[in-house]
Amino acid sequence: MRPRHWVRVVVCVVVSTVVAACGAGGAANRTADGRTELTVATFNEFGYEELFREYEAAHPDVKITPRKTGQGAPHHQNLFTKLGAGSGLADVEAVEEGYLSQVMARSDQFHDLLEIGPKAVTPDRWLRWKVEAATTRNGRLIGYGTDIGPLALCYRKDLFAEAGLPSEPDDVRQLFATWDSYFAAGDRFVAAVSGVAWFDSAAQIFNAMHNQHDVGYFDTSDTLVVESNPDIRNDWNAVTNAVARGQSAKLTAFSNEWNTGFKLGRFATTTCPSWMLGVIETQAGPENAGKWAVTDAFPDGGGNWGGSYLTVPKQSRNAGKAAELAAWLTAPEQQIKAFQARGTFPSQIDALENRALLEQVNTYFDNVKAGALFAAQVQKVKAAQHKGPADGQIQEDAFGPALRSVEQGKNANDAWGTAVKEAKKIAG
C-alpha cells in the first residue's frame, strides 16, 4: 500500500528437487510425511489463502506453509537485509511497486523469469506498463505482475447532498474532471458543511497527483529531480493551498484516527485505488453502507497507485518450481479469484476482460459494478511512472512528514525546503 500500508502479499516457496541449472541453494524442505514444503511469506492480503489450498489439491506432493507480516515495510526491510547477507530468503518473494526500484538495482540477485519460468507464460499476458516496470534494461524479467491500483475517487453521497453538490456518480464526474475543479468543489463544500473536511489527508492527495506524472522524484537515469521537476512543486502548492483553505481533515492515512474518520464521517472524499473499496467498507462499517459511492472519474485523467510482483531470488532452493507456483498464482484465473476474495485488481489482460470481473457488483457502494468501473480506469493508464532508488522511502519519510507538518501549521515554503532536504539525504 502507498504510503506502504496498502494490501499486499509476499509469496515464498521452497520446493523439493534441487535444479542446479536454476542456481539452487541447497536441499529442499520436506514435511514429516515426505511432501515438499512450500513456504509462503506474506505481508497483508492478496486473497491467496484459498488458492494455496487449491494448489495443494492439484499437487498432493506439496505442502504450502503461509507466513504473514502485518505491513509491507517490515517485509521489505527483511528482504533487503537478507539479500545483503546472501541467505535467508524464501524461494519466491513479492515486491510492492514502491520498493521495486531497489530490487531492480539488485536485479543480478534475482532470476530472469523468462528463462526459468514456464515457457507458455509470456509478457504479453500482462498490461504492457506492468511488465515494463519489472524488466531490466537488458531485457530480464524480474517479477510476475500481481495486482494493480487503478485510480478513482470515492465520496460521501449524503454529505455532498448536504452541501448542495451533485451526489449521483454520473453527475459528480464534472466535479472531478480536473484537480482545479476538484479543489474548487472543496471550497464550496467546506463553506456549506461545518465540521467536515473535503479530503482526509494532504499526503494521500499529493501522492495520487504525483503518481500521474511521467516523471516523478527521479528521472529515468535515476537522478533525483525533486527541485527541477515543476510538476512536483505545482502539486505541492495546490495541496498545501487547499490545506490552508480548510479542506484537509489532517488525518494520517491508515492511522487509528483515519480509520475512525471513515466511521464518523469526518471527510467527504478520498482517493480510491481499487483496493481502497475494501478498506472503506471495513473502516466505515455497516452503518455507513450506501453512503459511500465511487465514480469512474479521476482528476486530470487516470493513474495507478499500488501493485506488486512475485520474484524468485537466486537464493531459491528450487527456482524452477518456485517460478511455476508464481506463474500459477498470477495467471488470469487466479487473479480473478484473488479479486473476488480480497479485491486485489488484476493486471493480466485476459482477467480484465473476464465477465466475472466486469459483472462484479459492490453492494456496499450502492451496487456499483466495481469491476467494470476500474477496468475502464485501467485503460486511462498509458505507462507506469519510473520509480527511482528509494522512491517509496522519499514518499514516506520526506514528503509525507512535510505535508503533515503543513497540516499542523508549519509554513508551506519552509516545509517544502525540509522535504527537499530530506529527499536528498535519502537519495544519497
Write structural notes for this entry.
By secondary structure, the chain is α+β, with helices and mostly antiparallel strands. 42% of the residues lie in helices and 14% in strands. The strands form 2 sheets. Strands 3, 4, 5, 6, 7, 8 and 9 form a 7-stranded mixed beta sheet that branches. α1 links the parallel β1 (36-43) and β2 (62-69). α18 (391-407) packs antiparallel against α19 (412-427). The longest helix is centred in the last third of the chain and has 17 residues, at 391-407. This is Cellobiose-binding protein. Keywords: Signal. InterPro entries: Bact_solute-bd_prot1, SBP.
CATH superfamily of the largest domain: Periplasmic binding protein-like II
- Please summarize the sheet with the most strands: 7 strands, mixed
Q: Globular, elongated, flat, extended or rod-shaped: what is the shape?
A: globular
Would you identify the regions where 5 or more consecutive residues have pLDDT less than 50? 1-25
Cα Rg: 22 Å
Number of domains: 2
Strand content: 5-15%
Helix content bin: 40-55%
The ordered string of helix (H) and strand (E) elements is EHEHEHHHEHHHEHHHEHEEHHEHHHHH
Structural class based on helices, strands and sheet pairing? alpha+beta
CATH class of the largest domain equals: Alpha Beta
Number of helices: 19
- CATH topology description of the largest domain: D-Maltodextrin-Binding Protein, domain 2
Signal peptide: 1-20
Protein name: Cellobiose-binding protein
InterPro entries: Bact_solute-bd_prot1, SBP
Keywords: Signal
